[in-house]
Amino acid sequence: MREGTKVDYVIEMNHITKQFGDFKANDDITLQVKKGEIHALLGENGAGKSTLMSVLFGLYQPEGGQIKLNGKEVKINNPNDANDLGIGMVHQHFKLVHNFTVLESIVLGRETIRHGFLKMDEARKKIMELSERYKFKIDPDAYISDITVGMQQRVEILKMLYCDNDILIFDEPTAVLTPQEIEELMKVMKQLVEEGKSIIFITHKLNEIKAVANRCTVLRKGRYIGTIDVAETSKEAMSEMMVGRKVSFIVEKGRQKLGDVALEVKDLVMKSKTSGKNAVNHVSFQARKGEILCIAGIDGNGQSELVYGITGMAPLDGGQVFMNGKEITQESIRQKCKDGMAHIPEDRHKDGLVLDFTLQENLVLQTYYEKRFQSHGFIRFDKIHTYAEELIKQFDIRSSQGAVSQARGMSGGNQQKAIIARELDRNPEVVVAVQPVRGLDVGAIEYIHKQLVRQRDEGKAVLLVSLELDEVMNVSDRILVMYEGEIVADVVPGEVTVEELGLYMAGAKRSVGNEA
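Now predict its structure.
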């Protein structure tokens, strides 16, 4: 398995084993990364990829194995040790302080102090130079809480580059980015490698691996499956290595049977938190039963605010929302759920889960008050446990302790599956799904897309909000494109090209006013 001399590998993780109780997240895994390569790490949700990288970054201590840096064994007790050794990591779920500015977040832990005072001038200069060099266009004085997830991703990358790290770990870096941002990130990654950095790239997206990676190591259920040369291996072969079976990349849909209007949005207005403009500017549309209606657009064009308004997560500044002809504009979130609205939110940590609750508790967040889960005012945890076990099996949710696992400790993809299981099992009338396959592997994506198509075929309305052009084109029956808070196109996938969609999304083309 070894090639060349000892220093041929900048990083060697030999026979790493990491356990949580009786659960082996990493079972005798070996990973060898060459200097100056982009090395992809591929595996299903819960395969142990993030755990392995957390061991390399010093967040976890392994029960077995050794780590070598440039041929010499090293001990990494914590992230500070990792940074001192030149290892940086962009985590799948960002580690940013929301009430800090971009500048403060980047220098945190690496501050310059003179005579007891914090000196930011040099840091600001270096950060702006890095931002310019990699075309990140960040505002150093913006607060983390006010910037998009795509911009937060850039801040995390700048934080790593600010520390002058040579070995860069990207854990699902494209999960929250738009197609355009992904393309830019790929260029940045190639640029970094040309400058002598080495990159470990965790992703589920086989297109991205083919686009930038030199080699790829595949993990399955915590075990090492193999390392392959990306140029010589097909996507189909990689996906089969990852999930242990053949995976279909085509979303199969039967003929559409349109029914009545299930969701109607009339003249919706949502003001921006950061500017005086309308984030959603007098938007109207209808979604019918038996339809997957997709809202497409570049991140930050009002899609998030639109969903907040429809689902009740933020108050409207104008307009009305109707479901099955009934006005639900002012209803509580619980009442909207009772009326038949399901919501798969954009941010699973902030809006989808209570991270310190168990998996089984999270699976009944919308239904714990129902008669089946209580007796004389007391919650029946035995009933909840049985129900959770059924959903875990049905949706293949993997975690170290099953139903009683803490949500915080689960992989991002399995957290997402838990939310989807909870929302779809309620037999909703309208499914609002925002980035539903973000962070999922190809096997899980195939499964979730089938679930959305099944909802549509059962006569439900699905409002899909997606930044992924492949998903937009393959899953949707109809596409609305948002640009600067307005709907600028109402198109059908078979009648529009990806290039045309890109023009609508960039604001270079418009086919409708603000009516759909």
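Residues 56 and 76 are 7 Å apart (CA to CA).
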